[in-house]
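Researcher: We plan to redesign the surface later, but first we want a full-length starting point. C-alpha cells attached.
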C-alpha cells in the first residue's frame, strides 16, 4: 500500500476523484433517469401502489421512503461523524457505504411493483450508501490537504463530479432515446442503473488505493466514541443560544431550506406527472433536458449570486432569492406545458445553485471565533436533513390526501414566506444574548 504525504498532488487528486465516482448517483438515480423510470411503471390512469398495509399514490410513496431514508441519515450521521473523528480505519467505513450504494443502484435493475419491498430496499441502499460514504469522504479533507489547499481541492472535486455525472447521463440518454418501443426504453433505463453502480464502485477504487487508512489507527470504538458526535451537536446547540445572529439565521435557513430541498427532490416526478408532454419519447427527452438545464444554469447562478452578495450583502441577497422561490411555487401550480416547465427549470437552476452556495457561506461567516468548525457544520448538515425529512413528509402527505402534486407545491409557498420574515429579523452585526 502506497503512503502518500499530506498535501501531495496525487493524494489530493485521488481524494477529489471520488466525486467523479459517486456523483453519477445524484444525477442519474436521484434526479433524472430513475424518477422517469419509476413513473413509467404505473399505468396512465392508475398511479397507486399497495405497500406497508396502505394504498399510496406513486409519488407520495417514493417521497415517504426518501424522507425515511434521510431520517436514518439524521440519526446515523452524528454517530458516523464521531467514529470518523476517532477510529483508525475510516476507509473501511467509506468502502462499506460505497459498496452498499453501488449494489443498491445495480439492484434497481430488478425494480418492479410486483416486488415493491425489495425494490424500495434497493432504492434505500443507494441513498443511504451515498450519504453514508460522504460522511467519511468529507472527514478525509483535513487529513489529506493543508488549510490553504482545502478550498481549491474541494472545488476541484465538485467540478469532476459534475463533469463525470453529465457525461454518463448523456450516454444513458442516448441509450434510452435509441429505442422506439416503451418497454425497450425501460430496459435501457435498467441498464443505466447498473452502469451507475458499476461506475461508482469501479472508479472509487482509485481513491481507495491512495487514501490513507486513517490518522488515528489502532483505537477501539467505545460507547463514548460512538456518542461523541451527539455530544458535539449538543455543545453547539448550547453555544448558539448566546449568538443571536447565528441562531436567527439558522432558523430562517431551516425553514426555507426545507422547501428548497423538497422541490429539488421531487421536481422530476412533478414534471413527469403534471406536464402534458405528448408522447413518451418527448416526455423522456424533455425531463432529462430539464435536468441538464438546471445543472448548467446552477453554476452560473452560484457565480452571480456570489457577486450580488458582495455588493448587497448576504441576507438581502437571500431575501431576494427567497422571493423568487416563493413566486415559482405559485407559478408552478399553473405550469402545464413543456415550455412552461423549461422556463421553470431555468429559474430553479439559476436560484438553486445560488441559494445553496450562499446559505453555507453565510453560515460560515456568522460562526463565532472557534477552531471547532467541524462540529458547527455537522450541526448545519443535520439541521438541513431534518428539514428535508419534514418537507418531504408534508409534501407527500398533501400529495396523498389531495391527489395532486400541484397543491403540495403551492403549500411550499408558506415556507419561503416564513423564511423571508425570519431573514428580515437577522441582525446585521453579531449580537449575543
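Model: Full-length starting sequence:
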Amino acid at each position: 500500500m502506497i503512503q502518500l504525504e499530506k498535501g501531495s498532488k496525487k493524494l489530493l487528486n485521488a481524494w477529489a476523484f471520488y466525486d467523479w465516482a459517486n456523483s453519477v448517483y445524484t444525477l442519474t438515480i436521484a434526479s433524472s433517469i430513475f424518477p422517469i423510470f419509476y413513473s413509467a411503471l404505473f399505468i396512465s390512469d392508475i398511479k397507486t401502489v399497495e405497500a406497508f398495509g396502505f394504498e399510496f399514490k406513486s409519488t407520495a410513496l417514493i417521497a415517504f421512503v426518501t424522507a425515511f431514508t434521510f431520517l436514518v441519515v439524521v440519526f446515523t450521521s452524528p454517530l458516523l461523524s464521531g467514529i470518523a473523528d476517532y477510529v483508525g480505519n475510516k476507509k473501511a467505513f467509506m468502502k462499506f457505504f460505497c459498496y452498499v450504494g453501488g449494489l443498491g443502484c445495480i439492484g434497481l435493475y430488478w425494480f418492479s411493483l410486483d416486488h415493491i419491498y425489495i425494490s424500495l430496499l434497493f432504492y434505500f441502499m443507494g441513498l443511504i450508501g451515498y450519504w453514508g460514504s460522504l460522511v467519511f469522504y468529507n472527514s478525509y479533507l483535513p487529513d489529506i490537504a493543508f488549510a490553504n489547499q482545502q478550498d481549491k481541492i474541494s472545488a476541484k472535486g465538485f467540478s469532476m463530479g459534475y463533469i463525470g455525472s453529465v457525461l454518463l447521463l448523456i450516454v444513458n440518454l442516448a441509450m434510452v432515446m435509441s429505442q422506439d418501443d416503451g418497454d425497450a426504453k425501460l430496459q435501457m433505463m435498467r441498464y443505466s442503473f447498473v452502469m451507475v453502480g458499476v461506475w461508482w464502485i469501479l472508479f472509487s477504487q482509485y481513491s481507495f488505493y491512495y487514501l490513507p487508512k486513517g490518522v488515528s489507527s489502532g483505537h477501539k470504538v467505545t460507547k463514548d466514541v460512538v456518542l461523541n458526535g451527539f455530544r458535539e451537536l449538543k455543545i453547539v446547540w448550547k453555544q448558539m443560544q448566546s449568538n443571536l445572529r447565528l441562531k436567527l439565521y439558522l432558523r430562517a435557513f431551516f425553514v426555507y431550506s426545507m422547501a428548497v430541498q423538497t422541490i429539488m427532490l421531487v421536481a422530476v416526478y412533478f414534471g413527469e406527472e403534471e406536464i402534458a408532454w405528448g408522447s413518451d419519447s418527448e416526455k423522456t427527452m424533455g425531463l432529462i433536458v430539464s435536468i441538464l438545464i438546471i445543472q448548467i444554469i446552477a453554476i452560473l447562478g452560484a457565480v452571480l449570486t456570489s457577486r450580488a452578495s458582495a455588493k448587497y450583502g448576504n441576507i438581502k441577497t437571500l431575501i431576494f432569492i427567497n422571493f423568487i422561490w416563493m413566486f415559482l411555487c405559485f407559478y408552478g401550480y399553473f405550469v402545464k406545458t413543456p415550455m412552461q416547465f423549461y422556463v421553470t427549470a431555468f429559474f430553479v437552476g439559476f436560484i438553486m445553485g445560488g441559494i445553496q452556495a450562499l446559505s453555507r457561506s453565510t453560515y460560515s461567516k456568522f460562526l463565532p471565533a472557534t477552531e471547532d468548525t467541524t462540529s458547527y457544520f455537522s450541526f448545519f448538515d443535520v439541521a438541513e436533513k431534518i428539514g428535508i425529512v419534514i418537507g418531504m413528509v408534508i409534501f407527500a402527505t398533501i400529495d396523498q390526501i389531495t391527489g395532486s402534486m400541484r397543491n403540495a407545491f403551492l403549500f411550499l409557498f408558506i415556507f419561503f414566506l416564513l423564511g423571508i420574515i425570519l431573514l428580515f429579523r437577522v441582525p446585521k452585526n453579531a449580537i449575543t444574548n
